[in-house]
Amino acid sequence: MKVLVTGAKGQLASDLISFLRENDIEIIPYGKDTLDITLLNEAIQISKRAKPHIIINCAAYTDVDGCETHKDLAYKVNAMGAKNMAISARKVECKLVHISTDYVFDGNRGFKHPWDKEHRIPEPYMEWDSPNPQSIYGHSKWVGETLVREQCPNHFIIRTAWLYGASGQNFVKTILGKSKSPQRDEPVYIVDDQFGTPTWTRDLARQILKLMVTETFGTYHATSQGFCTWYEFAQEIIKVSGMNLEIVSCTTEDYPTKARRPKNSVLDNWMLRCQGLDFMPDWRQSFHKFWDKHGTHLEGLTR
Ligand SMILES: NC(=O)c1ccc[n+]([C@@H]2O[C@H](COP(=O)([O-])OP(=O)(O)OC[C@H]3O[C@@H](n4cnc5c(N)ncnc54)[C@H](OP(=O)(O)O)[C@@H]3O)[C@@H](O)[C@H]2O)c1
Has this prediction a pTM greater than 0.90? Predict the structure, then answer.
């Protein structure tokens, strides 16, 4: 099986490419320097030459706050780029795996038992819930999904969330890096009212492989199981790494950002589960495995 991967130098693509290669799949990787997905003719020519069985579009403009400032770029990459890859997949009659995000939802869903302030259990979003993105990033990704559906029937749209891996920048590395910052002795404030599910890119890679070999096209949620807030995720990172860092919980309002982020973006992997295809593990167990594999290397960030 031959798989063309776009955005090949990104965080998810790096783990995906290694994982698929370990599973004897031939990969044709294209980074932004060799395939700019905003260029339709280039995308079609490269796809025709490569003749892949599957295209996996990992390319995206993922700087959530940056998208608020560079709106055209956000739509060019996340919407038109997705459309271009969908047209290319249709032209070469291959499947398309397109990665999307929890940020297509507004996050206002709330909790299962709103009266229980101590045990906050967010009501998850299902695949058929109506998106209502609150940021340019979320909206451009939502438009991208819509264009993929229009242009390529053989698609898997996979919405994931809170990714971390050994490559690229992510929340785990941000927290580890805090212990080196000049303000080291000051507490670090972390929001404790945004809920989601940390997801290791390697787990997602395995899930993508399980799904892409089927013909069950459509839209899927694929995150780890369980949920937490950013503050709780930071607590786990500190506990597992053994680093010395004082963190203090705060609210979204205390920590304003350019882009609005959903307060509850917990996703239910319903479509995967009901087809017996949900292989995503518990987020804490996964994070421990991630640390066993990469912790020694990442500890360097704390010193
Ligand atoms: N990270 C998360 O927490 C998260 C959560 C939910 C969903 N997702 C989705 O998961 C997918 C992978 O995300 P990631 O974390 O791996 O992001 P990433 O590390 O930013 O990777 C995206 C890659 O796409 C490249 N790219 C940007 N513009 C391009 C263009 N015009 N043509 C070709 N490549 C281009 C980027 O290159 P440069 O860096 O050189 O610009 C980067 O290498 C994305 O679709 C993202 O929306 C991510």
Answer: yes
CB of 98 within 8 A of CB of 57?
Answer: yes
| Pure H helices in 63-135 | 64-69, 71-75, 82-91
Pocket of ligand 1 contains residue 10 by CB under 6 Å: yes
Between CA 154 and CA 145 the distance in angstroms is 13
Is residue 137 part of the annotated active site? The answer reads: yes
**8 A C-beta contact, residue 103 and residue 135:** yes
Answer yes or no: CATH 3.40.50.300 is held by domain 2-169+199-224+261-282.
Answer: no
pLDDT higher than threshold 70 for residue 201: yes
Give 101's contacts (C-beta < 8 A, 6+ positions apart): 137, 138, 141, 159, 160, 161
Pocket residue to mutate for ligand 1, from 12, 80, 156, most atoms within 8 A of Cβ: 12
Report how far ligand 1's centroid is from the alpha carbon of 62 (Å): 5
